[in-house]
């Protein structure tokens, strides 16, 4: 059983666009998965022995790692030895038939393999080639290995992701990796649009650290304007008060008073309308200057009642609010059910598994039904035969020499 016939295309705005994906782990695989949700056909190139490193990360669903499942739906897997001449030859033939090549090796690795942009574009000037690295070519960090936590530390994000006085902490989301993937999507789609007009491709280059720095938003401007780095404030906001988590009698509630109207509504919700006209708290700057005076007043009042009480009352007074959900509760909430964000796919070996669908909708419709993540080399023979035109005898010889591997 295969995921999808090689001649079939997924529907969506990128239907028929072919992506050859050399990337592994997270920054890259997430991008190619999103492209697949948009309709692109993805061929994932994996090393012969163990494949993408994330195939080996526990826990497992049958033979598949949770990590691999999360990032590799809708892709076909071909297993190649890129240190062999025949493996490189196959990779080049696949690249010649692709619209997009995606890779996230350290700078120079693809060039040494003979699969760099300058080499491939000679025979394919319309190729869009995307390289995601930790730091890019000209960084003083050079060839230093870059993982999510390294990018987070160097971006300044970890310094503020903590309560005051506590140790620095990484974000729960692997945002360093994901930022690289997300910005690569912007670049690839822009290059694809340009190529449709000019016929010429581009080398899209994304550094994970650059991407996280670009996502600092108002935090960088605080430094530029004041000359001081923002201090950690936990769930609070560096310049807006009240904003963050507040204790109740049995837990915590998020409150976010981003405008004066919401602040007034919140004061009324607390039965403390006097706070609206109090000169210590009347304006943004007043509340920021006197937050150490205002926040204890709010905490004392909110601890008088339960979380459920405050969630109902905050909604009644039109104050932005939320409970703090666990991952499981978040996935089980009614919003996720109504938006059909979780679907069940059936893997030929692992059986039924749940996956999170892509969030992008067109004309009210989400992505095609997902296909399950592939076994290592599950589509090797199919791709060699139906995409590149090799016959069965040639494929058997390639498998015998170790240039390729197939799970079938």
UniProtKB/TrEMBL annotation:
It comes from Thalassospira povalilytica. The keyword Aminoacyl-tRNA synthetase does not apply. It holds the Pfam family CoA_transf_3. Keywords: Transferase. Gene3D superfamilies: Crotonobetainyl-coa:carnitine coa-transferase, domain 1, formyl-coa transferase, domain 3. The lineage of its organism: Bacteria, Pseudomonadati, Pseudomonadota, Alphaproteobacteria, Rhodospirillales. GO terms for molecular function: transferase activity. The keyword GTP-binding does not apply. This is CoA transferase.
């Amino acid at each position: 059983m295969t995921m999808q016939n090689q001649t079939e295309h997924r529907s969506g705005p990128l239907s028929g666009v072919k992506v050859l994906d050399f990337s592994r782990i997270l920054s890259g695989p997430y991008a190619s998965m999103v492209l697949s949700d948009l309709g692109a056909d993805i061929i994932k190139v994996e090393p012969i022995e163990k494949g993408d490193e994330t195939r080996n990360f526990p826990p497992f669903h049958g033979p598949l790692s949770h990590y691999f499942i999360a990032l590799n739906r809708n892709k076909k897997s071909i297993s190649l030895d890129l240190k062999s001449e025949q493996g490189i030859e196959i990779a080049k033939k696949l690249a010649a038939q692709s619209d997009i090549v995606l890779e996230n090796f350290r700078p120079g690795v693809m060039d040494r393999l003979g699969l760099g942009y300058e080499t491939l574009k000679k025979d394919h000037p319309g190729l869009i080639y995307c390289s995601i690295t930790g730091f890019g070519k000209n960084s003083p960090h050079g060839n230093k290995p870059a993982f999510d936590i390294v990018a987070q530390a160097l971006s300044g994000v970890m310094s503020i992701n903590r309560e005051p006085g506590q140790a620095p902490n990484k974000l729960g989301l692997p945002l360093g990796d994901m930022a690289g993937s997300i910005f690569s999507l912007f670049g690839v789609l822009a290059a694809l649009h340009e190529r449709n007009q000019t016929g010429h491709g581009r080398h899209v280059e994304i550094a994970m650290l650059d991407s996280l720095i670009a996502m600092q938003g108002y935090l960088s401007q605080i430094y530029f304007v004041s000359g001081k780095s923002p201090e950690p404030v936990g769930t609070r906001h560096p310049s807006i008060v009240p904003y963050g988590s507040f204790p109740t009698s049995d837990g915590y509630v998020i409150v976010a008073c981003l405008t004066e109207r919401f602040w007034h509504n919140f004061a009324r919700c607390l039965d403390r309308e006097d706070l609206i006209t109090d000169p210590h708290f009347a304006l943004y700057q007043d509340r920021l200057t006197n937050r150490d005076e205002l926040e204890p007043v709010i905490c004392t009042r909110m601890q008088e009642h339960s979380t459920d009480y405050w969630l109902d009352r905050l909604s009644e007074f039109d104050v932005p609010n939320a409970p703090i959900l666990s991952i499981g509760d978040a996935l089980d909430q009614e919003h996720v059910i109504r938006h059909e964000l979780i679907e069940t796919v059936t893997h030929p070996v692992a059986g039924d598994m749940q996956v999170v669908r892509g969030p992008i909708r067109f004309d009210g419709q989400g992505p095609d039904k997902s296909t399950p993540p592939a076994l290592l080399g599950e589509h090797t023979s199919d791709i060699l035969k139906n995409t590149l035109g090799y016959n069965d005898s040639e494929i058997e010889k390639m498998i015998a020499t170790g240039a390729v591997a197939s799970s079938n």
